[in-house]
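User: Here's a protein and a ligand (glutathione). What would the complex look like?
Assistant: Let me lay out the input and then the predicted complex.
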Amino acid sequence: MTTDSNPIKLQGVPGSPYTRKMLAVLRYRRIPYRFIIGQPGLPIEWGYPDGASLPMPKVPLLPTFYFKDENGVEQAVTDSTPIIRRLESEVSGRSIIPGDPVLAFLNYILEDYGDEWLTRCMFHFRWAFPADVAKAATILPFYQAMNLSDEFSETMQKVISERQIGRLYVVGSNETTRSVIEQSYVRFLENMDRHLHHHQFLLGQRPASADFAAVGQLTCLTHFDPTPTDITIKTSPRTYAWVERNEDLCGIEVTDADWIASDDIPDTLIALLREVARTHMPQMLANAKAVASGKDQFETVIDGKQWKQPSFPYQAKCLRWTREAYASLNEKDRTKALAILEKAGLGDLVTATV
Ligand SMILES: N[C@@H](CCC(=O)N[C@@H](CS)C(=O)NCC(=O)O)C(=O)O
């Protein structure tokens, strides 16, 4: 049981979008937490008294949560999407998963888009523009520790920027695809601006996990990295403000009536789903096919441009989870969900053979 004297423990850094996603979730849900700044495994001399005692996660990702198992032993757990579902079952009230199964399914798709497509925008803008590289490389080391020597932080700047620039290809960013990624971010902002004009959140007047996924990535895109920050301010001042507001929603009160009705999906939400169909879906399907046939690369066309990148088993798992969520709907809800997906050009997400 989580209480003020027994808060949920998690570790991460302010520069990590998934860490910001989860901190915003915990604040909105009013779940007591203890946030340990840093990265699992960092040494005591960097200011990490917990460093030696915390268990290491199987895959070192931020944020890492520390949950006690049935024997009271702390286990390191990663991956925000299933952690959100776990917290839903452990702590009641202020749910971020809509009660309407069709809406919950749309939320799942939008959460995946935030986590897996907007993160490409984030990674691309941060590491493909000199001004953004310079800022990130200078600041990121100090998120780990304040007592780094100037010499060491300069070495870290070089190590981090070389490593991250060298990984741009992993998210599909290259000279051919950069316009696809950049234009997709601008369209996302335009769609958000139209949507937020009438709805406080993606699915109505209360936040869902999809909102927090977007907010997490957008903390970087709208408030840290200079190039996308400028684009955001010019394209959607509403989205700029939305991100800051949503990082701490502990004060808003909500009711069940605050969700939109799945019988009446606003056109502005369909437009956002159309964006998922245009960019995220083709690469998800192509990736899943490649993973299924054991290929370590995949190629597809997005927005008329060749898209080529290493295949990614985790994202094949994301597609499988999406399809499982669809399959778990009853027949009536599945028919309703498919009609919405088809209206947005997203039908293949659940029907195409992979
Ligand atoms: N699917 C994971 C992704 C977490 C993730 O990728 N975190 C990034 C930091 S924001 C990370 O730890 N990357 C590993 C690295 O950069 O080496 C989630 O939703 O929590």
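Summary: The two ends are 41 Å apart (CA to CA).
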